[in-house]
Amino acid sequence: MRASHLILMLLLVLLMSGCAQQQQPKAKIKVGILPIEDALPFVVADEEGIFKKHGVDVEVIKFQSAMERDAALTSGQINAVLTDPLAVILLRNADIDVQIVSLCLGKTPQEGVFTILAAPNSSIKKLEDLEGKQIAISSNTIIEYVTDEMLDGVKVEKVEIKSIPLRLQTLLESEVNAATLPEPLASLAVMKGAKKIISDADLDESISHTVIVFKRDFINSNPEDVKKFLAAYDEAVERINSNPEKYREKFIEIARVPKPLAESYKMPKYPKSEIFPKEFYEGYVEWAMEKKLIKKSIPYEEAVYKK
């Protein structure tokens, strides 16, 4: 009897242990996005229940600025973000342990969204005409990085204007000779008389990218949840690409496409998730080193997670 009683007690303990494990809450992914066109798959995956379908608990949190988003990541309010590779390098330099889990937009040059424009009344017609001229940018950001890449050695006087709407206004009022703007405001600037000089979408190689980034401790503790997150992201991409017009209204809202462009603005074809290529990453690190934005080179293997 004692032996059978002992066996019964062991079985009960094992059963209770199993129930406790099943009742453990799933890790919650809190992902921060900005009002840019790259964010559409995140919103679709959330609103159409795709994350839930793949068994992952996700809260999509919208931020109005990169500074606000990065502060939330640094303080632990969120554990994942849609951002750019330069931001990742700067975060890691500040001892914020994050890793890129996937490329978003930027696999091909055609997915580029940045343009150097000349003021409406300017005599600037081509890249070489920018020599010695003022160009409005936001320093130490992806804006300055792509500007330097597109200038390809042309020397300019950089004018700091962090606010993108103010940069647009300053350009249209010819208070600066030129400015670098992202879409859709670059297209709006052209509609209002600014002159397109060069766009990263016209180059032979891709120079601007967005990426999905997670805190490394979350990846290490929840690798399966990261995989499920990316699987859900891919399904959202498939839905959007198969019927883009269905999602146009949502796209216009998320990307804050101005009304004059709403009907004609082209939606991107979203690529599925994939490992961020080393050849893309190295350009950002080299530029950050040249600008003395980082103390030392940050190896690709540390910054990029290979699922």
Question: What keywords describe this structure?
Answer:
307 residues; alpha/beta; D-Maltodextrin-Binding Protein, domain 2; 2 domains; 10 strands; globular
Describe, in short, the structure shown.
42% of the residues lie in helices and 16% in strands. It has helices at 2-22, 40-47, 50-53, 66-75, 85-93, 142-151, 164-172, 185-191, 216-221, 223-242, 248-255, 278-290, 300-303, and strands at residues 28-33, 57-62, 80-83, 98-103, 114-118, 134-137, 157-160, 178-182, 195-199, 211-215.
Written description of the protein model:
Helix content is 42%, strand content 16%. Helix 2 crosses helix 10 and helix 5 (85-93) packs across helix 12. The protein has helices spanning 2-22, 40-47, 50-53, 66-75, 85-93, 142-151, 164-172, 185-191, 216-221, 223-242, 248-255, 278-290, 300-303, and strands at residues 28-33, 57-62, 80-83, 98-103, 114-118, 134-137, 157-160, 178-182, 195-199, 211-215. It folds into two domains: 28-107 and 209-303, Periplasmic binding protein-like II (D-Maltodextrin-Binding Protein, domain 2, 3-Layer(aba) Sandwich), CATH 3.40.190; 110-202, Periplasmic binding protein-like II (D-Maltodextrin-Binding Protein, domain 2, 3-Layer(aba) Sandwich). It has a five-stranded mixed β-sheet, sandwiched between helices. The protein is an alpha/beta fold and 307 residues long. Residues 19-24 have low confidence and may be disordered. 39% of the residues are buried. The termini are far apart. The chain is globular. It has 13 helices and ten strands.
